[in-house]
Amino acid sequence: MTYLKILILLILLLPKLSISQVERINIQGKVVEFRTTSTNEDTQTETLTLFTGDKELASLILSDFDGDCSSENIELGTYKIIENSIIFYSYWASADRMQKNKYPYGFRKEQYRFDTNGELVLRTTELYIETYVDDWTVHQGMTFLNTNPKSEHELNLKNDYIAKAEKMYQSHFVLGAEKQQLEQEVREILKAKIKENTGYWAEVYGKNSKH
Description:
Elements: H1 3-13, E1 19-27, E2 30-40, E3 44-52, E4 55-68, E5 71-82, E6 85-96, E7 105-114, E8 120-130, H2 152-169, H3 176-189, H4 191-198, H5 201-205, E9 209-210
Antiparallel strand pairs: 1-2, 2-3, 3-4, 4-5, 5-6, 6-7, 6-9, 7-8
């Protein structure tokens, strides 16, 4: 292969190359590798993956940016360690000048804990999200997430949406006071990243955003 062909191949592969960083953290006597990988393909994504040795334990998207000249979709994440627990936090927001795509929007908390055998176990999950669960069709059940259904049909729509969202995100859906507490906690811990990535949205998108 000539030098020119090698150079062209490297240029073609460059957008898909990933960069990894590794941090080793001792959690209650257990050494866990926190590997952060950045990729730049169709979307710009930074992912955190936890390992002990070669065994993958869990993963979290730290940032994911998608969109075009008139819209943006973002996912932000972070974590904190409390004794033998690792807590993941996720936040979704969307904006669209054309008023076509304002989803996903929501919050999630996942709490992992090392058990007595040294295994990382997912103990609890909390999720509130407004998103597409039926391809790109807006599910009617979202209408009743923050208002009371007035008929059995409306209640069924709400429950169907929640069931599909829980399956999609493998998390327990919360509403009411639990949702408010979840939102407050996620917004607080991700405050700086949310401001950095959505602080200009009101000026650019006006009311055509969910953040």
